[in-house]
Fold:
Amino acid sequence: MPAYLTAIIVVLSAFTSPLLAAPPNIIMILVDDLGWSDVGYAGAPGKLYETPHLDKLAARGVKFTSAYSACTVCSPTRAALLTGKYPARLHITDWIAGHQRPLARLKPPAWTKYLPREETTIAEVLKAQGYATASIGKWHLGTKEEGWPEVHGFDVNLGGTHRGQPPSYFAPYKIETLKEGPDGEYLTDREAAEACAFIEANKAKPFFLYLPFHTVHTPIQAKKEKIEKYKAKIAKLEAAGELGAQKSAPYAAMVESLDEAIGAIAAKLDALKLSENTVILFTGDNGGLLGPTDNKPLRAGKGSAYEGGVRVPLFIVYPAFVESGLTCAEPVITTDLFATMLDVAGVKNDPRGAAKHDGVSLQPLLLDPRVPLSDRDEIYWHYPHYHPGGATPYSAVRSRDWKLIEHFESPEGGRIELFNLKDDIGETKDLATSQPAKVRELHAMLKAWRASVGAQMPVANPDFDPTKEKGPGKNKQK
Structure:
């Protein structure tokens, strides 16, 4: 038997062993609008941002280089993470409450603008297993009446409301579910402090901490001293001819504050001797927002069908069982994190029973990132909306090296693009014309998937007026 298979069997046995002293703690960190190339460990070409704590933490686990958000905007990805279902299946397909394009060629479907209470969340599953649960940060999945974290399995909700962004990153925050701090307190610091307090309070039992930071979403607000630091760094890099496309000092300062918050949480786990038995998952909810940041070498950014809109950072750390310093190139997506958390928590049977769900556990990739997932070759997106980031209604599929995008808005009824991401990560060469067989294969897969999840489609807009329609740039980003 190959040595690596022996190792997998040994570690799998450890995951399921009844000799484990306690189920692992789980910390699920979701950063708002964090771009794929905004973190140092990703090896992106930019030299501006500094993320030493994140880099150190990522080095302790498995880094996923082809990780994707479930949507190009935030609310659908959050719903997918919490339920393990594709946004298309949930019919939560845009940020809540979405952009209005009343004169566009297509009209979005009547989609769902909240997370229904009948959906089973990861917090509800883990709470039933004896976990203490908390959501600290952004919610953005409906109004209080429709349901905030408290009605979705969380014992604690600090900062979660219907809002998609904080009124201010400096106290007074004016967030009704977060007690005001002293004037000038920084929200990212406060969320990290609340996370550390929750960990301290629950150190003697398993806990699930969902930490959806508000940062680095707009408004772009950072500490003055950090902004000045990065202004000086930008000048130095520019003088040396080394300044890349990332040029915003305030945004760089926000990234550093995020990094310090992660460092504080890691230090708390170390101090309490909880690090070995704590699983940390870190990712973003969509691609980086162009303007504040840049996603090169990826094409475009948040609100786009292209890689810059959906490829995100992801790493998973579990020191007790996962070898450090590993990298995985397997394509994975937000919906996979639900099943992964079930696995590492030792939940043998999905309590949703026969309920339809999506995603596969990434636990095999934590054990050996070289072995492709055996039960999934394709991942999908469906966004029947418009967005100022450039998206017009589309669906897409990635199958190994290939990515097909079907754009619904065109006079003839649809347009296909095909890219080979292995050869062309920047999606600069559309191969649809030269690869008709691959187009037919992937398009058939995409249509079959849409039918299987009950995806809602846009329809012709009877009010379409090409003389007055201004295009996707007319609306404010969310």
Observations:
- The chain has one domain: 25-372.
- Residues 1-20, 473-478 have pLDDT under 50 and may be disordered.
- The first helix runs from residue 3 to 16.
- The CA atoms of residues 26 and 279 lie 5 Å apart.
